Amino acid sequence: MLKTFKKGGVHPAENKLSAHAPIVTAELPKVAIIPMGQHIGAPASPLVQKGDEVKVGQLIAQSSGFVSANIHASVSGKVLKIDNAMDASGFSRQAVHITVDGDEWIDIIDRSPEIVKEIKATPEEIIKKVQEAGIVGLGGATFPSHIKLSVPPGKKAEVLLINGVECEPYLTADHRLMLEKGEEVLIGTKLLMMALGVTKAYVGIENNKPDAIGHLRDIAAAYDGIDIVPLKVKYPQGGEKQLIKAVINREVPSGALPIDVGAVVHNVGTAFAVYEAVQKNKPLFERVVTVTGKSVKNPSNFLVRIGTPTSQLIEAAGGVPEDTGKIVSGGPMMGKALKSLDVPIAKGSSGVLLFQDAEAGRRPVEPCIRCGKCVSVCPMGLEPYLLMTYSDKKMWEEAEHERTMDCIECGSCMYTCPADRPLLDYIRLGKSTVGNIIRTRKQ
User: Which overall architecture, per CATH, does domain 123-280 show?
Assistant: First the structure.
């Protein structure tokens, strides 16, 4: 029997329209807009000024705190300006704007196609290179990866989990990466194992990707300690806590982290980025992005330089269909509608989804009928209808008591609600407000 998590979950239509589309290198933009805040934590501080010449891979912004990440130039050219630009959430953030001129890379990057299997770096050197390369979680959370590799005193990492689930409908970037860069992903997994000091790693992949499972199993035969684990298809299995429960049957307690049960989770895209950083001296300045939708002419997977406008990717996939009602950054369950197609691709950009007009609009909100469906599908065991009420009534103490901070924002509650209530919207508001209250209390 296939493994899965037990609590809650839903089964949205998969719509993996681009699953068989090979990764294609996207054209360089004319102007790259590189945000300083592409990660959880403090934005990076620019190291360049207007008029500076930069090369691909050059450090252009330094991490500005413990929870922060370096930013590198994804293109070569001249710094046009340092100014604000809109991000995928609709907020105006500081960004470095670079006018592209050619494609000149810094010398230390190994651009040869040969796969480097021999690992010469020590655990300390691996963590340092990951930090210097600005690697963050590429599954969407964008937590700086070097912090996950630096196990806190008193904690012990026992097992590494590589997240190849990609349970969001439509998205196929990780699927294609496993098929086309499987060897590199497993070398990256070995590097992460060495950095953590663990001897066991599991790569969890949902069973709707049998080609990726078979491919990685063939490669993994040569790598001691790495097992490929097929998983039952169920959303949101890509959540850290759900993946841990599914693969190693450990439950992360409320308010705790994976390391509290001896686990560390990294995305397959992150594992690949770690391989490139350690074995090829390549910082994180490009990633694979899915562009898809039921009316999109050519659903595609692109290798994209950070800072490329979303509009350029959409044009490369055939343009905006006439029946498009909404364009989302990410997947349909957790993604956010874009206010502008000028929004640049960032480290956390996994996909661009063009919804048809017929499926984009929200239906009128009806009164809650107390059916309990939102409770039954919540993978965290919460009561979404209650958390929405607390947020609506600004009852923040009650919301905290009912564990609103445990919500992983998967959207399963909204997906299943027969009354079309905006549960997740209100819970996100509650999480933001309660989180600020908690941080203020600790000061």
Answer: 3-Layer(aba) Sandwich (3.40)
Q: Where are the domains of the chain?
A: 123-280, 373-442
Percent of the chain with pLDDT over 70: 100
Q: Say whether the peptide bond before residue 12 is cis (omega within 30 degrees of 0).
A: no
What does the alpha-carbon distance between residue 418 and residue 432 come to, in Å, rounded to a whole number?
A: 26
**How far is the first Cα of the chain from the last one, in angstroms, to the nearest whole number?**
49
> In degrees, to the nearest 5, what angle opens at C-alpha 159 toward C-alphas 158 and 162?
155
Q: Check pLDDT > 90 for residue 140.
A: no
Cα separation, 438 vs 443, in Å, equals: 9
Separation CA 82–CA 98 (nearest Å): 9
What tokens does 285 get?
Answer: 């300045």
Rounded percentage of the chain residues whose pLDDT exceeds 90:
95
Residues near 328 by beta carbon (within 8 Å), at least 6 away in sequence: 335, 336, 337, 338, 352, 353, 354, 355
Pairing relationship of beta strands 300-305 and 226-231 according to DSSP bridges: unpaired
Predicted confidence (pLDDT) per residue in 275-328, tens digit: 999 999 999 999 999 999 999 999 999 999 999 999 999 999 999 999 999 999
Whether the predicted pLDDT of 146 surpasses 80? yes
HEC states along 155-168?
CCCCEEEEECCCCC
Query: Which strands form 77-86's sheet, in the order they lie side by side?
Result: 31-35, 92-100, 77-86, 53-54
Q: Given this model, what pLDDT does residue 442 score?
A: 82
| Beta-bridge mates of residue 324 | 356
Residues linked to residue 365 through DSSP beta bridges, in sequence order: none
The pLDDT tens digits of the residues spanning 70-115 come to 999 999 999 999 999 999 988 999 999 999 999 999 999 999 999 9
pLDDT for position 57: 98
**Mean pLDDT across 43-51:** 96
Q: What is the pTM of this model?
A: 0.96
